[in-house]
Amino acid sequence: MSDQLGPGASLTIQLNGEARTCPAQLSLLEVLRHFGYEPRLVVVEFNGEILPRTAWAEQAVGGDAVLEVVTIVGGGS
Q1: Among 73, 76, 69, residue whose Cα is nearest residue 28
Q2: 15: nearest Cα among 56, 58, 47
Q3: What is the pTM of this model?
Q4: Are the C-beta atoms of 56 and 27 separated by less than 8 Å?
């Protein structure tokens, strides 16, 4: 699939094992928000590597991206 990079373009990424479509040219942080994740409450594996939160705003997401997003759940005993 070739990604068009003009206005309104979208791309397909793998998110937690599913093909998902999002706008093109977003950062990882913007992709997380697009799919409704609260960035403070998730850990992200990006193309097989866990990325620190400090890198999310600068990390470009392309059509070959594979994301695994795990939500952190607080709890007690």
Answers
A1: 69
A2: 47
A3: 0.85
A4: yes
Domain boundaries of the chain, sorted by first residue: 10-71
* Ordered per-residue pLDDT tens for the chain, 77 residues: 444 566 689 999 999 999 999 999 999 999 999 999 999 999 999 999 999 999 999 999 999 999 999 998 877 66
Read off the tokens for 28: 């990882």
Taking CA atoms, 12 is separated from 3, 19, 24, 67, 77, in Å, by 8, 6, 9, 11, 40
Domain 10-71: top CATH class: alpha beta
